[in-house]
Amino acid sequence: MREATRDVGAALARLQRASRVLVTSHAAPDGDALGSELGFAELARALGIAATIVNRDPHPASLAFLPGLETIRVADLPAGFEHDFDLGVLLECPDLDRPGFAGFGSLPLLNLDHHLENALYGEVNVVDEDAPAVGEMVLAMAETAGIAVTASMATNLYAALVTDTGDFRYSNATPRAFTAAARLVTAGAKPDAIAEALWEHNPARVVRLTAEVLATLELLAGGRLAVIACDRAMLARAGARPEDTENLVNIPRAIDGVRVAVFLKALADGAVRVSLRSRGDVDVQSVARTFGGGGHRNAAGCTLKGGLADARRALLAAVLPVVESS
């Protein structure tokens, strides 16, 4: 089995041996995925290394403000792509399925992550489960390299940090998170502008979709479990996009008394994407693992085959005992 290290210096050393890197993250990218990618690519270029970001899925509307977002290619990896690069960099991907691509061929991989259950698939695996966000690890790489953190890099990495800590409300909002935030603000990140861009610039279609999804709300287990769902018809009626569902799971999580929130989203291929959020010591990562997914104790996800009804039954059978024992 390949070994892991927490030392970002190992990632930096491997990066500096490359000249053309492919950078990617998980499908349905969130703030940590996108912010880390953009920050990492800027770091690589500052070191004289060409960096290309390719994602399978587009960004959520709430993250459209990120500097450099227009440089990200949203596409499948073409045949023979590995000959165009000498290193693949996977950020916040606990396994090789998470990016959503068919594979990476013979391309050497650098794995930078903070998930406990990481599969250690890289030539170099830098995995630090205590990191509040992968963006914080990228910041540490830049500082180790002696690279000046620009305002654009600071903005992207602060967005990674603030989204993965739930606006500094989750259990990973540790002293390490706040000290990183302070360094990023010193480098030029503007918390007020980033917060406004993240939370106060929703397109009308997102508000319409939110209304559709919240109409499905169910409270179970004496009000401790909240379940919402989104089918393809809701997206069509709202004129919304699949990525517009980002953060909807956090709304039922905020209901007084709710310990676990579940969001089920029907995908175009007939599968169902499940997002799980919890409070306190309720471990939803264990539920996600039951279905081949993963994440963190209070924020996890998985994908189930079959329609919404079948996915709901299977998911509830796994999550109800966890809620009832909490």
Helix content: 25-40%
Low-pLDDT ranges: none
In CATH terms, the superfamily of the largest domain is inorganic pyrophosphatase (n-terminal core)
Shape: globular
- Note the run of SSEs as H and E: HEHEEEEEHHHHHEEHHEEHEEH
Largest sheet: 6 strands, parallel
Residue fraction in strands: 15-25%
Could you tell me the CATH topology label of the largest domain: inorganic pyrophosphatase (n-terminal core)
In the residues, how many domains can be counted? 2
Q: What Rg, in angstroms, do the CA atoms define?
A: 19 Å
Structural class: alpha/beta
Count the DSSP helices: 11
CATH class of the largest domain: Alpha Beta
- Main-sheet strand order equals 3-2-1-4-5-6
- The CATH architecture designation of the largest domain is Alpha-Beta Complex
Mean pLDDT: 96
Tally of strands:
12
Q: Describe the oligomeric state of these chains in a short phrase.
A: single chain
Q: How far apart are the termini?
A: 35 Å
Describe the overall structure.
The protein is of the alpha/beta class and 326 residues long. It folds into two domains: 8-198, inorganic pyrophosphatase (n-terminal core), CATH 3.90.1640.10; 204-324, Diaminopimelate Epimerase, Chain A, domain 1. It is built from eleven helices and twelve strands. The protein has helices at residues 8-15, 31-46, 134-145, 151-164, 175-187, 191-199, 204-214, 232-238, 250-253, 285-290, 308-324, and strands at residues 20-24, 50-55, 73-74, 87-91, 109-113, 124-127, 218-220, 225-230, 260-266, 272-278, 294-295, 299-304. It has a six-stranded parallel beta sheet, with helices on one face. The protein has a six-stranded mixed beta sheet with strand order 7-8-9-10-12-11, with helices on both faces. A hairpin with a 4-residue loop joins strand 7 and strand 8. The radius of gyration is 19 Å and the shape is globular. The model has no long low-confidence stretch (mean pLDDT 96).
